[in-house]
Amino acid sequence: MKNLPLSKEEVTRLVDAAQAARENSYSPYSKFKVGAAVLTSEGEIFKGTNVENASYGLTVCAERNAIFAAVSAGHRRFRALALITQKIPGVAFGSPCGACRQVMSEFMPPATPVYIAVLNGKKRTVYCKKLSELMPFAFTKFEEK
Ligand code: THU
Fold first, then answer.
1. Is residue 61 lining ligand 1, measured as CB closer than 6 Å?
2. pLDDT digits (tens, 9 = 90+) for 35-67
3. Which domains are seen in the chain, by residue range?
4. How far is CA 38 from the centre of its chain?
5. How far apart are CA 91 and CA 95, in angstroms?
6. What is the DSSP letter of 137?
7. How far, in Å, from the CA of 31 to the mean position of ligand 1?
């Protein structure tokens, strides 16, 4: 079954959830807080934030923590993912890292919308990119069922 596009309200709800998760960011080393949320095909939202470690390489990004939380609860199909960061000088938005794009490609069809929100003071701007734009030619065995 194909996923339907999200309504404006659903996008707001998902970005709100990502923003709430960002408040829990454990990022004492980078001081860069990231929040993420995924919407399952069943309509549930799972949140994640970045969790850093004194051994820096052990850090896990917000996006992967959100996806892994959903998968751990038994979900494998997603309608959308949202992430949110502060404004990064010189770029329009904080783009997901390559590792997270690969993990997204495992569980999300290429047409899945990825909502990328930017917090600039009190202003929140939301961009939307298809996963296929972020991760063309992904290595994946994904099949639409
Ligand atoms: N980070 C994320 O959580 N998601 C991304 O897509 C990029 C980077 C985190 C990892 C680290 O805690 C901090 O942002 C700075 O790299």
1. yes
2. 999 999 999 999 999 999 999 999 999 999 999
3. 8-134 (3.40.140.10)
4. 6
5. 9
6. T
7. 10
Do 80 and 35 touch, CB atoms closer than 8 A? no
pLDDT at 4 over 80: no
- Sole residue written with tokens 């751990």: 72
Confidence tier at 145 by pLDDT (50, 70, 90): low
114 and 93 in contact (C-beta within 8 Å)?
Answer: no
Alpha helices in the chain (DSSP H): 8-22, 62-72, 98-107, 131-134
| Residue of 97, 118, 119, 127 with the most ligand 1 atoms within 8 Å of its CB, for mutation | 97
Report pLDDT digits (tens) over 103-144: 999 999 999 999 999 999 999 999 999 999 999 999 977 566
